[in-house]
Design goal:
- The complex is a heterodimer.
- By secondary structure, chain A is of the alpha+beta class.
- Chain A folds into six domains: about 1-40 and about 160-190, Phenylalanyl-tRNA Synthetase, Chain B, domain 1; about 45-155, OB fold (Dihydrolipoamide Acetyltransferase, E2P), CATH 2.40.50; about 210-400, Phenylalanyl-tRNA Synthetase, Chain B, domain 3 (3-Layer(bba) Sandwich), CATH 3.50.40.10; about 410-475, Phenylalanyl-tRNA Synthetase, Chain B, domain 1 (2-Layer Sandwich); about 495-690, BirA Bifunctional Protein, domain 2; about 705-795, Alpha-Beta Plaits (2-Layer Sandwich).
- Chain A is built from 21 helices and 42 strands.
- Chain A is elongated.
- The longest helix of chain B has about 40 residues, at about 50-90.
- A seven-stranded mixed β-sheet of chain B has the order 1-4-5-9-8-7-6, sandwiched between helices.
- Chain B folds into two domains: about 1-90; about 110-340, 2-Layer Sandwich (BirA Bifunctional Protein, domain 2).
- Classes of the chains: A alpha+beta, B alpha+beta.
- Chain A: Its cofactor is Mg(2+).
Chain lengths: ~800, ~350
């Protein structure tokens, strides 16, 4: 709401309070003022008379004028087409500061010019409220304008400052000047005197007007015929106030409807009586149709939208905009006044759908003061009589009724102080409540407030407490901490594991990413390990963000593609996120590695971002979370060979439970996603959170020496390292302290179709020193078992 | 006797003149070897009288020891210089770059979330999360947002069906915590998480963003307690010595409700472009838990009270690090991510 300071002054003294001080005070008290804008600006202005105006000798559009403003004739060159001798004008003297320029003495094409004749636009008046002539030419003042008067802005009525107020949604009252004046009064602790026009609309002859509401969304409707009005220009002060509020002045009748809305917060609509021959208004909400509103645009109205009809024909979108065919124009000689209450949700839905957030609609949406319809009709009638020569008034017709009784709220001083943490005394509290016109009645330590009808936001005692603290000021609050028994704050197991994971991954050089939850349909189909029925939004904003993702793989590949398109290399990412299917949620870890994890060419470091680096990272991380490699099972990937390389990917299990898939991204899928070769893992974090990790437990350090043996075995190429290790462990049992594969070779000196695997086996007993008598036969047994089971031969 | 002196003198001179270990070894063999001059001196013993022998023997021994010591000393000197020249040959160009392992980075939203979580865990709060696919019940109804509230429009919320939606605020976690407590106090919880609103993505809006909310419910919790608590948070997020101020505001979940401003961390409150000249930056919404919210969750609002606060993590990160476009958080350009590579 734009609040004119001059308008406020009609109700309350602002002596000694600057616009900025008022803005600060209101903001501090909760009515945020986002801007303080003078209607017009300019120093060194004076009203002058053009004594003579002759064409400039060296120009086809400039004039050389002699202007009198009380300091003797002054020569000013003027380019305005409407400049002529004898008119009264606004002169900006040399040194004047205007919004866009500073006036200096100058020579214009050889002719001296000591000042400027101004248009209103040059004083910063919003063009929206100016006529074409006013925009293109200088302002021509009335003939009786006092030459020499330097209070030009005041003379023009432009000495106003407008506060741009942004009220919170609950403060519907701040959409009405009368209530704003009350708020200003409470904040400044000054009395705001509002005019009362109560009963002004009681006058009227018997009427034939019929008002019918066929919708419960229109519980109250006041209609009144004003048989005769004269349409003309509205008074200057009214135009100025409307302009300050951001509404264009049109004519006295339309302006009165807008002006009353600004005063009372109640939107009014005036229909041209001649265009409503049925003298009947019916409110309905059950048709689909098209309607041309008074902005000349055709709107599609549908069932549920409130409509104003007359004679069975729609003539307005209720509460939002009137119809074109019943609008007021210069030919209007009589009107029907509408002051109605329409349901805010209905208006909101219609206005939003139609993109018609009019001043009226926004007031309905915020909610009306219950008594506003009556106040507005009273005030409108009074203004119509005064400024539109209204006569032949008929009595007011009412459909529905207003159920209003003032709200009373009782609070105790004790509870107020307890909630706020303050030590206010009763007189401090009542002083505020009186300033708010809440009429506090004190009874011992409690007080009862009667809430004015325009404060539609006050219902409970906490609302009263808020009024008290905001008007006494939040600076009066101390800074304390809750007094309560101590609690041991902690992270949950899940949160702690998540933190550990992030630490491991970032320590290894990976970067955490957060990608969008909402994805397109294709990404749902490209999910790794989908686990149910997809969740689709009922109200998506776009096809690209239509589903709640069930896997992170596509999003992370998209992220890689983005970075690779920008020439980034060694992009190594991870994300921890929830993924969803119908009635199911899973927290997952995604790891995406490309190029190298670590690389330094000078120092010859190159940790390739390949399957084994990924596998190693996953194994180390699992071990860190308490799942040592003995509990992890790696199997050939048969679950998803569309997104993963069928021969370079694996399923990872914690014992029998599938954790996820790791491996090279399938080249075809990588190409489709526009990424270079890369490896990816998507793992079920829930499983790890819910499984029991092995606890840290000290095992006495080895006291007996170990025996180390290196062997190189030749096996067929499809023999897995795991099968060899399994046999070694099976035969060697507890005497195997560790095994390590340290080389795999294929090529010269190894039979075709075979490979050589080099291993180190460390034998050790925990309770004695191993002798050759033990190690030699055991080692031999292992070798023979490897030969018989896998046809593995020692490499010569 | 003079002969012994001569042998010693000559030997010491030779040893002194040695410049390599080989020469020294040669000198050692020469003088102390079986056929060396010292040994030769010993053969002179047999020609001496029994009275002279001990003195002579002692003299030769002294000579022998002196030579041995000289060799040993020389050896040490040569070793040191040999090591020195060996090391000199091993000289490297220390200005060549070392292997600097890439240290990964936490996402800035994680950094801020964790900082806030840690602060409040230290003050005895638990950290609670909760589902992003949420019921209308917890997201709206229990948060005291009535059925006809604009936030419940299809326009503003991603609905999945009549009951389910993507949560629009982490207040949903609070309403679940309140219900879970079953009237048991105190509740001290911090609730971080992703939230979703039907906004078009631009420099300052994102359909997905991150919030962190806090909730305390107990006996005699006051608005002043909220102010004291948030002062800690302001100091932690924007540096010690921040001032905070409350301005009246409106949220369904709280009454009274306040906006919380903190003195600008850039200009310290003098006024700059970041704080638009006001010296203050709005960082939080907060207030005293609305009695309806308490009652709906089974608490007796006459016997307890609580405060709640909420902040946008993106907003805090943008203010703290000077990030100008919220979309950066979700595009994950590695050049952006690399920015957050140090302790801060």
């Amino acid at each position: 709401m734009k609040v004119s300071i001059n308008w406020l002054k009609e109700y309350i003294s602002l002596d000694g309070v600057s616009a900025n001080e008022l803005a600060n005070a209101l903001t501090t008290a909760g009515l945020e003022i986002e801007g303080v804008e003078p209607v017009a600006k300019g120093t060194n202005l004076v009203i002058g008379e053009v004594l003579s105006c002759v064409p400039h000798p060296d120009s086809d559009h400039l004039n050389v004028c002699m202007v009198e403003y009380g300091e003797g004739p002054t020569q000013i060159v003027c380019g305005a087409p409407n400049c002529t001798s004898g008119i009264k004008v606004i002169v900006a003297k040399v040194g004047a500061e205007l919004p866009a320029i500073t006036i200096k003495a100058a020579k214009v094409r050889g002719q001296e010019s000591n000042g400027m004749l101004c248009s209103l636009r040059e004083l910063g008046v919003n063009e929206k409220y100016l006529t074409e002539a006013q925009i293109n030419g200088i302002e021509i003042l009335p003939n009786d304008a006092p030459v020499g008067n330097t209070e030009v802005l005041k003379y023009l009525g432009y000495d106003d400052v407008v506060l741009d107020a942004s009220q919170t949604p609950n403060r519907a009252d701040c959409m009405a000047m009368w209530s704003v004046a009350k708020e200003v009064g409470a904040v400044l602790r000054r009395e705001a005197k509002l005019p009362s026009y109560e009963g002004a609309s009681k006058i009227g002859n018997p009427t034939t007007l019929k008002i019918i509401s066929k919708s419960e969304k229109c519980p109250h409707f006041l209609g009144k015929i004003v048989g005769k009005v004269i349409v003309k220009e509205s008074p200057k002060w009214m135009q100025d106030y409307l302009h300050a509020a951001g509404i264009r002045a049109i004519n006295n009748v339309v302006d009165i409807s807008n002006y009353v809305m600004l005063e009372t917060g109640q939107p009014l609509h005036f229909y041209d009586l001649a265009k409503m021959p049925h003298k009947e208004i019916t409110v309905i909400d059950d048709v689909d149709m098209k309607l041309t509103a008074l902005d000349g645009i055709e709107y599609e109205v549908q069932k549920g939208d409130l409509l104003i009809t007359t004679g069975g024909k729609a003539t307005g979108i209720a509460g939002i905009m009137g119809g074109d065919d019943s609008k007021i124009d210069e030919t209007t000689t009589g009107i029907i006044i509408e002051a109605a209450h329409f349901n805010h949700v209905s208006i909101r839905n219609t206005a939003k759908r139609l993109g018609l957030m009019t001043e009226a609609a926004s007031r309905y949406i915020k909610g009306l003061e219950p008594l506003a319809q009556n106040k507005a009709v009273d005030r409108a009638v009074q203004l119509l009589i005064e400024y539109a020569d209204a006569s032949e008034l008929e009595e007011t017709v009412e459909a529905g009724c207003v159920n209003y009784s003032p709200i009373q709220v009782t609070e105790t001083l004790e509870h107020c102080n307890e909630l706020l943490g303050t030590t206010f005394k009763m007189d401090e509290v009542t002083e505020v409540l009186k300033a708010l016109d809440f009429n506090p009645v004190v009874n011992g330590t409690s007080f009862t407030c009667t809430i004015p009808s325009y404060r539609t936001d006050i219902f409970i005692r906490e609302d009263i407490d808020e009024e008290i603290i905001r008007l006494i000021g939040f600076d009066s609050l101390n800074k304390t901490l809750p007094k309560m028994e101590a609690t041991a704050g902690k992270l949950t197991h899940r949160q702690a594991l998540r933190r550990e994971t992030k630490q491991v991954f970032t320590g290894l050089g990976m970067r955490e990413v957060i990608t969008y939850t909402l994805v397109k349909e294709q990404y749902m189909n490209d999910a790794v390990l989908p686990f149910g029925q997809h969740i689709q939004l009922a109200s998506p904003m776009s096809e690209d963000r239509k589903y709640i993702r069930n896997s992170m793989m596509p999003s992370m590949l998209e992220c890689l593609a983005y970075n690779q398109a920008r020439k980034a290399d060694n992009v190594n990412l991870f994300e921890i996120s929830n993924v969803y299917e119908k009635d199911k949620v899973q927290e997952r870890v995604g790891i995406l590695l490309s190029d190298s994890l670590q690389e330094n060419r000078l120092q010859k470091v190159d940790i390739k971002s390949d399957f084994f680096t990924l596998k190693g990272i996953v194994m180390s991380w699992l071990a860190k979370l308490g799942f040592a490699s003995e509990r992890i099972v790696i199997k050939e990937n048969t679950l998803d060979t569309i997104h993963f390389h069928p021969y370079r990917s694996a399923e990872v299990y914690l014992q029998n439970d599938l954790i996820g898939i790791i491996g090279e991204v399938h080249p075809t899928y990588a190409k489709a996603m526009d990424v270079a070769p890369c490896v990816y893992a998507e793992l079920n974090f829930d499983l790890l959170v819910n499984a029991k990790g092995t606890k840290v437990r000290f095992v006495p350090l080895d006291r007996y020496p170990s025996v180390s043996r290196d062997i190189a075995l030749v096996v067929t190429v499809d023999t897995t390292a795991q099968s060899i290790l399994d046999i070694i462990k099976k035969v060697g049992k507890r005497l195997i302290q560790s095994t390590e594969v340290f080389d795999v070779y294929q090529g010269e000196h190894v039979e075709k179709g075979c490979k050589s695997i080099a291993l180190n086996i460390v034998y050790q007993a925990t309770d004695h020193t191993l002798t050759d008598d033990e190690v030699v036969p055991l080692h031999q047994e292992i070798l023979s078992e490897l030969e018989s089971k896998l046809n593995a031969k020692l490499r010569g | 006797m003079e002969k012994v002196q001569l042998v010693q003198q000559e030997a010491l001179q030779k040893i002194e003149a040695c410049t390599t270990m080989d020469e020294l070894q040669q000198a050692k063999v020469t003088y102390l070897g079986k056929k060396g001059p010292v040994q030769e001196l010993m053969t002179l013993m047999k020609d001496l009288s029994p009275e002279e022998k001990p003195a002579f023997g002692q003299e030769v021994n002294v000579c022998k020891q002196a030579i041995a010591k000289a060799i040993e000393d020389k050896q040490q000197i040569l070793e040191v210089s040999a090591m020195a020249s060996k090391l000199e040959k091993e000289k490297i160009d220390i200005t060549l770059p070392g292997y600097e392992p890439v240290l990964g980075t936490l996402h800035p939203l994680s950094v801020i979330s964790q900082e806030i979580e840690d602060l409040f865990v230290g003050m005895g709060y638990d950290v609670s999360e909760g589902p992003e696919v949420e019921l209308d019940l917890y997201n709206f109804e229990r948060a005291n947002i009535p059925a006809d509230h604009p936030a419940r429009d299809m326009q503003d919320t991603f609905f999945i069906n009549a009951e389910e939606l993507l949560r629009t605020h982490t207040t949903a976690i609070q309403t679940r915590e309140l219900e879970k407590a079953q009237g048991k106090m105190p509740i001290k919880v911090i609730c971080p998480g992703k939230v979703y609103r039907r906004d078009d993505d631009d420099a300052t809006h994102s359909h997905q963003f991150t919030q962190v909310e806090g909730l305390v419910v107990g006996e005699g919790i006051t608005l002043a307690d909220l102010k004291g608590t948030l002062k800690f948070m302001a100091d932690r997020m924007f540096g010690e010595g921040r001032e905070i101020r409350f301005r009246p505001s409106y949220f369904q979940f709280t009454e009274p409700s306040v906006e919380v401003d903190v003195t600008c961390h850039i200009c310290g409150g003098k006024g700059c472009s970041v704080c638009k000249g006001t010296g203050w930056i709005e960082i939080l919404g907060a207030g005293m838990v609305h009695p309806n919210v308490l009652e709906m969750a089974g608490f007796d609002s006459k016997k307890c009270s609580g405060f709640a606060f909420g902040a946008g993590i993106e907003r805090i990160a943008m203010l703290k690090y000077g990030i100008d476009d919220i979309r950066n958080f979700y595009i994950n350009d590695v050049r952006f991510l690399k920015t957050f590579n140090r302790f801060d």
